[in-house]
């Protein structure tokens, strides 16, 4: 049998998770606690059907039609063209003024509710239906067996109509076995979750529990509700994305700096720039950014720690015109607010920068900011590793800036496994000479080939970034307690003078 055609939900990220959408003509369960986003997603599902010329019906047992229109208006939507069938009061089911005494009231209400819904569906013959919500049906049924029978009868009723149906369940009411009952009846299940952090905005995520006879991206996927609807950020799976590219060297324009890396960084590699604050890590990354933009390549900088205005001023002082590169469309700088952005959203933004904008170089400043600003998130380092694997397989050169804890002496890189997180590692240190604080740079790891094993002086001024000769006259620079053991040869700025 050929697979069923897919029915788009109107949310591009969720359609990506479902590999095109829901299989058409089946019944699906959309579940989640109140406030998780079920109504918004349901309305997007129907509006997408309306755009495709399909008849759409929203059956509401809990919310009024006016409340649904208010939700739509908050997103700038117009529900004109979508049929709203409201059953939110007993009078609408039994008829105003009608009473009975032979049966229990809930038996009559349940039967009448199902009958009225079926009549409306038969009259309109919709291709998409949202039934909101099953919790009201559960309360009317009063009994788990009767509730299951009614859901089964609705499924059997919708099946020959070839309609795609969303049953909405807000997970309220009694009965711990309700989840397994509905999951076994429905063709697919999508669960929405909303949870609050100790600081920052609430996080939302979804998981596709099952879709019969169809593939999808398993696991949790972060999402947000913004003006305009739901945005879903599919979990990044690096193995699904790979392109062929030439492993050429990415040069900085500073000969001695490229010589440290044995001829430059290799395209599709990740480099960790680590050292105390103020040693020139971001400046070195900007040097490579400027060189890449000069070659016509697109670059993206993600700032967790520093304000963009400060970054632009610093680059201007070293002769790099970042605003000009941004105006040309070669450079984009994004200020990341971790209190508002989830790890999944961040990874998806990087993914879109590569896939849609053709970005070839990415700077993440800083990795400590990423890890420390989301303390309640789990598996952050694993998510970063998956992101780096995707970037490497896409031929993107990545710079990760990681400030060490402390300024001089013994320092700590934090919760990082250097061998696990990056292909190359460049270490920056302060050292003292002739009563002045100076900077040193060295390459301590490079998976992609040879590199210099020398420790060189690094100097940054209005002329840009310069690398001096090896510091052969010093011992203990890397430990932060250097000792001068050489002659009185001038250092970098002294020779320039």
From TrEMBL:
EC number assigned by the record: 2.7.11.1
Alphabetized CDD domains for the sequence: KaiC-like_N
Top class in the EC scheme: transferase
UniProt KW keywords: Hydrolase, Kinase, Phosphoprotein, Repeat, Transferase
GO molecular function, one term: protein serine/threonine kinase activity
KaiC domain mapped to chain residues: 5-246, 248-481
UniProt keyword RNA-binding present: no
Name this polypeptide is given: non-specific serine/threonine protein kinase
């Amino acid at each position: 049998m050929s697979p069923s055609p897919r029915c788009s939900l109107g949310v591009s990220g969720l359609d990506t998770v479902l590999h095109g959408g829901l299989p058409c003509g089946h019944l699906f369960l959309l579940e989640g606690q109140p406030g998780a986003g079920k109504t918004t997603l349901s309305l997007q599902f129907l509006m997408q059907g309306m755009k495709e010329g399909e008849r759409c019906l929203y059956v509401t047992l809990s919310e009024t039609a006016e409340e649904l229109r208010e939700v739509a208006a908050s997103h700038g939507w117009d529900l004109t063209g979508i049929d709203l069938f409201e059953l939110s009061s007993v009078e609408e089911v039994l008829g105003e003024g009608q009473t009975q005494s032979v049966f229990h009231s809930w038996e009559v209400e349940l039967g009448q509710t199902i009958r009225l819904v079926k009549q409306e569906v038969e009259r309109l013959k919709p291709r998409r239906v949202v039934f909101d919500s099953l919790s009201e049906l559960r309360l009317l049924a009063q009994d788990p067996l009767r509730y299951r029978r009614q859901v089964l009868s609705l499924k059997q009723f919708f099946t020959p109509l070839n309609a795609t149906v969303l049953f909405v369940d807000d997970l309220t009411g009694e009965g711990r076995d309700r989840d397994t009952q509905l999951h076994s009846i429905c063709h697919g299940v999508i669960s929405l979750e909303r949870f609050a952090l100790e600081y920052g905005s609430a996080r939302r995520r979804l998981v596709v529990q099952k879709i019969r006879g169809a593939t999808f991206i398993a696991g949790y996927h972060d999402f947000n509700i913004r003006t305009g609807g739901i945005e879903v950020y599919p979990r990044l799976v690096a193995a699904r994305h790979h392109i062929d590219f030439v492993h050429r060297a990415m040069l900085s324009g500073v000969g001695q700096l490229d010589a440290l890396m044995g001829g430059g960084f290799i395209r599709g590699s990740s480099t960790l720039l680590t050292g105390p604050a103020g040693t020139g890590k971001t400046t070195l990354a900007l040097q490579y950014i400027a060189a890449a933009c000069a070659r016509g390549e697109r670059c993206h900088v993600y700032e967790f720690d520093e304000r963009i205005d400060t970054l632009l001023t610093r680059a201007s002082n070293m002769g790099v015109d970042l605003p000009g590169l941004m105006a040309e469309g070669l450079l984009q700088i994004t200020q990341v607010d971790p209190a508002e952005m989830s790890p999944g959203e961040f990874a998806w933004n990087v993914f879109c920068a590569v896939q849609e904008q053709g970005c070839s170089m990415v700077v993440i400043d800083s990795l400590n900011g990423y890890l420390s600003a989301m303390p309640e998130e789990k598996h952050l380092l694993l998510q970063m590793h998956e992101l780096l694997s995707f970037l490497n397989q896409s031929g993107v050169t990545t710079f990760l800036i990681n400030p060490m804890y402390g300024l001089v002496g013994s320092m700590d890189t934090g919760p990082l496994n250097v061998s696990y997180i990056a292909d190359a590692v460049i270490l920056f240190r302060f050292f003292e000479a002739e009563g002045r604080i100076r900077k040193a740079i060295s390459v301590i790891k490079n998976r992609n080939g040879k590199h210099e094993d020398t420790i060189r002086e690094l100097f940054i001024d209005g002329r840009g970034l310069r690398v001096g000769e090896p510091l052969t006259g010093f011992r203990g620079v890397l430990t932060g307690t250097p000792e001068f053991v050489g002659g009185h040869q001038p250092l970098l700025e002294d020779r320039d003078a």
